[in-house]
Design brief:
The chain is an alpha/beta fold. It has 13 helices and 7 strands. Helix 10 links the parallel strand 4 and strand 5. Bound molecules: S-adenosylmethionine (SAM).
């Protein structure tokens, strides 16, 4: 049983991250007001006190749920304290230095703006975007170095706590299909980005064979760096479009996918789900974590609308009203269940045994 003191330490750690995220956002908004008072932006002060209270309650609940999973042994306490400190101290100043470029790009509505040295050939057109006005989209080392910090700030320090929501259902799903925590069990994280989800999975299932795929070579390099820090076998990372995974049919016991679907056009969402279905073994599980949607969190509609307007997220609005359950069913998945945690929603689905 994890003890009360460690829980208190975890709550303080999360509160610290939350205060840091809020302070960073307040400072950067003040600076933007000072430097470019007429810039286009969303006025977040319009959010009602009731809504802000609701958001805080959801964040507190997420932290409780995260700790409850430590308490019942889904993963160890060390996982919830994991934080890329070296990257934080190295790259946080760069985040500020990058900001004027971001503001400039956002103001001028330059949404497909890549440095000259970035090779953009061969990527799907929907991917060649400055998602969140990010410098070089997903295609540079600078972007990969800043990404985790940016996401942490956006979610007030809770990005990993939301990623960890896939771990309990993943472990349960594997146990139900009789797949043990050994090398023979294969798990693929699609759109693994900088590898934080793979790191979380390794923390909960130390001995399984892990695989990660992503379209960005820069993010894969970053994932390789992060995952090399841990003992044990290195997950196999491959550059691949989630629409065409370079794996055999029925190869994986489980596939996970975190924060990808809101960045895909509707038709591509279906293709990616179909592809996950193809590579999952009969009885295997598919676990998705992504943004909340209008159907499960209508009271948070102003936040979803603000996110779509404030950040460059061209497919987000459509995603928030997309029927992902229908898509999972169309692909052939069964036993579909959903949960919502803070700003995230998870889907759990199983491939039928008879497939
Ligand atoms: C918002 S990030 C999420 C990364 C990671 N899963 C996480 O938890 O932070 C989206 C990721 O999806 C990748 N991506 C977007 N479209 C893709 C596609 N069609 N195939 C493979 N990866 C894709 C991007 O390169 C990026 O790493």
């Amino acid at each position: 049983m994890a003890d009360t003191l460690t829980k208190l330490a975890y709550q303080s750690f999360q509160q610290g991250k939350s205060v840091f995220g809020l302070t960073h956002k307040a400072l950067s908004t003040s600076l933007l007001n000072l430097l470019a008072p007429r810039s286009e932006r969303i006025n977040t002060s319009g959010l009602s006190p009731e809504l802000l209270l609701k958001v805080q309650q959801r964040l507190n609940q997420l932290i409780e749920t995260d700790w409850a999973d430590v308490d019942r042994g889904v993963y160890s306490a060390s996982l919830v304290f994991d934080n890329p400190w070296a990257d934080f101290f190295r790259f946080y100043p760069l985040l500020w230095l990058d900001m004027p470029q971001i503001w400039d790009r956002a103001n001028q509505k330059r949404y497909q703006d890549f440095s000259e040295n970035i090779k953009t050939e061969g990527y799907p057109s929907y991917y060649l975007q400055n998602f969140h006005h990010q410098t070089d989209g997903y295609l540079s080392d600078l972007s990969a170095n800043l990404y985790d910090l940016q996401v942490e700030i956006l979610f007030n320090g809770s990005a990993d706590a939301m990623r960890r929501r896939i771990l309990a259902p993943l472990k349960r799903g594997l146990a139900e299909m009789g797949a043990p925590n050994t090398r023979q069990t294969r798990i693929l994280d699609v759109a693994c980005g900088t590898g934080r989800t793979l790191k979380m999975i390794r923390g909960a299932l130390s001995d399984v064979s892990l695989y990660g795929s992503d379209l960005s070579p820069a993010y894969l390099r970053k994932a390789n760096q992060l995952l090399s820090e841990d003992p044990g076998e290195l997950p196999q990372l491959v550059q691949a479009n989630a629409e065409e995974l370079p794996y055999l049919d029925r190869y994986f016991h489980a596939v996970t996918c975190v924060y990808l679907f809101h960045e895909l056009p509707a038709a591509v969402r279906q293709t990616v789900i179909n592809e996950a279905f193809r590579v999952i073994a009969p009885g295997g599980v598919f676990v998705i974590c992504d943004s909340i949607q209008m159907s499960d969190s209508p009271e948070l509609a102003p936040l979803m609308e603000g996110f779509a307007a404030m950040f460059h997220e061209p497919y987000y609005r459509n995603y928030t009203v997309d029927d992902m359950e229908a898509r999972l069913k169309e692909a052939g998945f069964i036993d579909i269940a959903t949960e919502s945690h803070f700003m995230s929603k998870c889907w759990f689905a199983r491939k039928p045994i008879e497939q």
